What does this fold into?
Amino acid sequence: MATATIERLIGKSIKRREDPRFITGRGTYVDDVKLPGTTHAVFVRSPHAHARIKKIDTTAAAKHPGVVAIFTGKDMTGVNSLPCGWLLPDLKVPPHMPLASDAARYVGDPVAVVIAETEDAALDAADKVKVTWDVLPAVSATDKADARTSAQIHEVAPSNVAFKWQIGDAGAVDTAFRNAARVVKKKIVNQRLVANPMEPRACLARYDAATGDLTLWVTSQNPHVHRLLMAAFVLGIPEQKVRVIAPDVGGAFGSKIFLYNEETICSWATRQIKRPVRWTSTRREAFQTDAHGRDHVTEAEMGFAADGKIVGLRVKTIANMGAYLSTFAPAVPTYLYATLLNGVYTIPAIHAHVTGVFTNTTPVDAYRGAGRPEAAYLLERMIEAGAAALKMDTVEIRRKNFIPKFDNGFQTQVALNYDSGNYAAAFDKLLRMLDYRKARSDQEAARKQGRFLGIGFSTYIEACSIAPSKVVGSLGAQAGLYESGKVRVHPTGGVTVYTGSHSHGQGHETTFSQLVADELGIPMEQIEIVHGDTGAIPFGMGTYGSRSASVGGTALLMSLNKIKEKGKKIAAHLLEASPGDIEYANGQFQVKGFPGKAVPFGQVALTAYVPHKYPEGLEPGLEETSFYDPSNFCFPFGAHACVVEVDRDTGQVKVLRYLAVDDVGNVMNPMIVDGMVHGGIAQGVGQALCEGAVYDEGQLVTGSMMDYALPKADMLPMYETDRTVTPTLVNPLGVKGAGETGTIAATPAVMNAVVDALAPLGIDHIETMPLTAGRVWSIMKSAKR
Amino acid sequence: MYPAAFDYHAPTTVKDALKLLGKLDDAKLLAGGHSLIPMMKLRLAQPKHLIDLGKVKGLGGVKEEKGVIVVGAMTTHWEVESSKVLKAKVPVVSETAAVIGDPAVRNKGTIGGSLAHGDPAADMPATAIALGFEFVCEGPKGKRTVKVDDWFKGLMETALKDTELLTTIRIPVWAAGSGACYMKFPHPASRFAIVGVCAAVTLDKGGVCKKVGVGVTGAGTRAVRAKTVEAALLNKPLDAKTIEAAAQKAADGVDVQADLQGSVEYKSHLCRVFARRALEAAVKRAQG
It folds into this structure.
């Protein structure tokens, strides 16, 4: 039977299958899961940045109507510290107990949990828990943490230093700088950010006393990681007795990778009281306790030859870890940051030194981009500062320094080996979209009228598809970084996919269905994507670091190939042909060159489960599992441009144009990639213009939506975006990863545009973000010219 | 529920509301709830009783009475924003309401609730001062009317007594040849006014300023009248130079507060910038 060629879906903007349930309010988030007999947990948290706990008096609270139990750290015997999952040489790992019992080390540090019949009762009773504090000196400033006068936060970490780490060749940089025509030195502050996903963190833990099983519903990007760390490392429960379910998750930006105190405590508590325990974070708790991002203070030096060629880069960064080491915290300012300092440029000598410090602040960990935005921001700021020093055009200096086009491998000075790149091509496309010459003449005309227009660029490279296990293991990761994909074909030809990666906004149900539909030639309606349940999916590593399509997608592709291979054997038997003569096309197994001699996919599926006429020795069933551990990271890149105007009266920055050319390799769903780019740009602009977590002696001053400014729609112009396509050879799909590009590129583009706008005042650098109107006005006012 | 427990009362007449207010210990009046409820959710406010004014008859609506627009205190910002009467007679009041918060806030928040609360960064106080609103309060001893210059007393403090209810806001309609404008520099997070200035002017046929009102909100602990600005404009032809010179005095008498959004110097400067911008727009409108 002949079939028409089925239209391929990969590469098409298929509307997201998951959206109808989300936009009609019918998603199932953790807080939507209802269990009979559920109790509610409220945490008693430290109001002090640093304080010894002298006494916790729960007497009055325990008498409050509806209270089921109150626990403090002293009650949690036999429980271990929350683990740090990435170890560096000589890393100081202080204990991080789920409930602090000796001292609280940041505002929000939980010291007791009140569990009651209702949330009201728990809140009221929590107000009655009396903690006697001995308030200690606190330190929150990144660049003051290791000062002699600063408070000592952990016994194991003298001077509050968590680690000192370096990469690159210091001697080579010294030599390069001696011979440089110009060395530009700048202080660069990459401020602290709060992730603020739409759905706050939540958990619901249920212990089944009859079976001894524990089920945890939790807002997680990686339920297996949660299960492994929490069950095996902290609570000492066998993994097979624990099921972790991350249902619909309303955004994360990295903040839901980590194992937190609250789900650990609820999972422990349900075993004590033998009833389900629920906790849902308030927005105020989210500001105080969700892992924060960034927070670097850096001194950077970039050396240039007279013609503008970069000869070397020296970087000294202090990275704020917060009060404790969050799950992957040490990796972020080291292997995810300094290894990217080669950027898209030929830099013959690089050396970076990073000091991680403890402070009395919320722990810091991966936030969208994680280390890579900090690296790109530094490089792009330095190259434009270099252009100013050398009186060169910012376009010209970049062109001089791009790594030339390569198809299969470029070894950087800082460990990484890039897969494929054509950096100048993306930049050239961007310049055409911008009409660079016209943009500069518009700027000139505006300057003559006294208006401050600025044009800023950024280029970036990103290491994503976070993997491979062997490499990350050698760098200190205590986990492997592969992904799993299982394909179960049902007797009627329907397909269920079980992926170890996790969607919390990425659209897996759509893109993975597109992949399956294309590979098997069946309609999307016949395909279900299951993720986020350790009881259903094979062990997987979850979603972060733009890895789902490239690593998770490839694992899925491997299983699809196995399905087809087995199907060919079944079909060959049915067609009385040799398996080697069977090909799969348009949803049917056919004898090569004879589309009329074929069996459809559904018939093969049925035969696999009703194996009456079946090949000798072949197992029944049609279900395959694969684990994919890639050979390398993937390296998306791109170039962005931003045009701004600064209001000379108020200092207000208005983004007039924003342009992006990204190269994320092959694109599975352009609409979804566009969406990720758009959202990422908004977050990157947000960091440049308005976001910033501010502490005052350990108190979080920006602890609510009233004070912490997220980017809003009216701050952003209509984006002008396009792509170049340089497929990776690392994975068979040729996809690189698209989740973080905008966040990485937008911040330096906006900053560079503002600095350019203020150039008539003699300004060539601004140390600190965000560029609030007040800050820009002060900079203009104190400018020399 | 995030707030601490409280008793809820829903009177249907002003009389009953006042009775409850007099009788109950530690009671708070609830209007649109967009200032009080967030404070209660954070448990920063823990009143024992809430007296909801939502069902009280006669506190809503906008009507014109002898050259004065009478607005019920429970009129929502959205109703103020969209009122045909206000848009025709005192458009700056509708325009000011339109830049308060977001649509959700404007649909619930009320003009009376906001003006009685006295948030130093609220928008309407600047316009109330510029136009010369009057506030009708009812208490156990009957009604009294308070002029706007006696209304804003300090940080979240107004002339409204603990035993009183703000029932009506009276907005004067300025003569022909008048124009007014509210200009605001919003906080990037909350969208409250970092600085907001409302300017209203009446010009005679020769372009001379015969009446002027300038209110400044956001910068200090309470909204204030920019008296020195007004004095510099009254009975003068309002050319650019005069406006510029007058606007320079816009921070006089404002107890400007520094915060994350800027220094005292910066916010004082913003007062001057927005005074100039608001005056320029008001004059343009007055000129038709």
